[in-house]
Write a structure and sequence with these properties.
Blueprint: E1 4-7, H1 10-20, H2 33-42, E2 44-45, E3 48-49, E4 56-58, H3 61-68, E5 75-80, E6 83-89, E7 92-95, H4 98-106, H5 114-122, E8 123-129, E9 132-134, H6 138-153, E10 158-163, H7 170-181, E11 185-192, H8 201-215, E12 221-227, H9 237-248, E13 252-256, E14 265-267, E15 270-272, E16 284-288, E17 291-294, E18 299-302, E19 313-314, H10 318-326, H11 338-348, H12 353-363, H13 375-386
Parallel strand pairs: 1-5, 10-11, 10-13, 11-12, 13-16
Antiparallel strand pairs: 2-3, 4-8, 5-6, 6-9, 7-8, 14-15, 17-18, 17-19
Helix pairs in contact: 4-5, 8-11, 11-13, 12-13
């Protein structure tokens, strides 16, 4: 019998890998048509909140042809980047409504929404369910790392944060430190995207590594990549984050007050959020208040504790910080550590090395020795000069 193939991308592989390793428990398998419809209607699975059905519906003419004629019990190979990475035994194939599925994920079908646009492109008309095998060891390794850290530290309280670090600034630092006071182990999940980012995942990972290495008790902090696939792209992100955090071993997840998935709304009892509607997600969710720099307090403060008006507050607006980096400028130190800004600028502008080396030699104090030059040295030295105050 001729072998059949389904062609899926890395994002689908990662999502299936998370499912296989139990990160979406109580959901442990791809859903059949009846279960998928029930979950989409009730937003509940196994008595616990779950935002939408979990299905595999890859796009493409070849995939659709295979799925339309697939038979119960048939084995189909899963292919990613021309390599067979697993297989699935057909239990059921059924047609899905792409419009409704996308709305279930993102809360909108607006084609201008980047997530909607990308998902329309990669979503097919037929879903398949059945037992599957997969070559994807990353998550298994991450689970082992967390388990080992818990055992090594004897941690009773495990907190976590999910962050992109685009860019990693002083408010992130403040929230991490505040969280560390209340737990034995802090797991920092850095979001690993499947689309191109202005600041690469590798650079963002390096920034967090630097902060942990130099400014935190390393034995109590763990940095773990989190597959940030399309299912996390919608308004259900916070619920899925909470489910994944719990299944990774955390008992608390810390989020910012401005988290996109928090979704504050009014009901008859007053102001509520999505947290108040969750059922059976057994994890503590701590919402941290907004932090700003106050030009009167001269430090980073919570908006809920600062007595000065908002006209004294400087906000940590990530898109604006990214614009500074796009211009090749180093942000003021009140926003970000100069060492972290230097890591980012060095990665963004690798062709500046010779020019920066010459400027650095002419404007910076020297030890008298011929030192090895790194572009990060230039940005750190420049910021030190910016912070010199005797001639201001």
């Amino acid at each position: 019998m001729k072998e059949k193939y389904l062609y899926i991308d890395k994002e689908a592989v990662a999502t299936l890998g998370m499912l296989k390793e139990g990160l979406f428990a109580p959901v442990m398998s791809l859903m059949d048509e009846k279960t998928a419809r029930e979950v989409d209607q009730t937003k509940v699975y196994g008595g616990k909140s779950f935002p939408f059905s979990f299905v595999l519906a890859p796009s493409g003419k070849k995939n659709e042809e295979v799925l339309k004629y697939a038979k119960h019990g048939e084995n189909i190979k899963l292919v990613c980047d021309k390599e067979v990475i697993g297989d699935i035994t057909v239990n059921e194939v059924f047609k899905i409504c792409k419009d409704q599925r996308i709305k279930n994920i993102y809360g909108t079908n607006n084609p201008e929404h980047q997530g909607v646009k990308d998902t329309y492109r990669r979503l097919g008309n037929y879903a398949i369910c059945g037992d599957f095998n997969l070559k994807f060891e990353d998550i298994k390794e991450h689970k082992a790392q967390i388990k080992e850290a818990i055992e090594k530290t004897g941690a009773k309280k495990v907190s976590c944060m999910m962050l992109s670090g685009k860019p990693f600034h002083r408010v992130h630092e403040r929230i991490i430190r505040s969280g560390l006071v209340k737990c034995d182990l802090m797991v920092l999940f850095i979001l690993k995207p499947y689309t191109d980012d202005f600041i690469s995942f590798e650079t963002r990972y390096k920034c967090l590594e630097y902060f942990i290495e130099h400014y935190l008790p390393k034995s109590r902090v763990l940095l773990i990549p989190l597959e940030n696939t399309y299912i996390f792209g919608g308004f259900n992100e916070m619920l899925l984050n909470a489910i994944v955090a719990k299944n990774y071993g955390a008992d608390k997840i810390i989020i910012g007050q401005n988290h996109a998935g928090l979704g504050a709304f009014f009901d008859r009892d007053g102001l509520s959020s999505i947290i108040d509607t969750l059922s059976g997600v057994d994890i503590d969710i701590e919402v941290m208040s907004e932090f700003v720099y106050c030009d009167q307090c001269k430090t980073l403060v919570s908006t809920s504790s600062c007595p000065h008006g908002s006209h004294h507050h400087i906000k940590y607006h990530s898109p604006s910080l990214l614009e500074l980096f796009e211009l090749g400028m180093i942000p003021p130190a009140i926003f970000m550590r100069k060492e972290i800004s230097s890591i980012i600028l060095s990665a963004l502008f690798p062709n500046r090395t010779e020019k920066l080396k010459r400027i650095h030699q002419n404007l910076s104090p020297s030890s008298g020795l011929l030192d090895d030059f790194e572009t990060t040295n230039f940005y750190v030295s420049l910021m030190k000069l910016h912070q010199t105050t005797s001639l201001n």
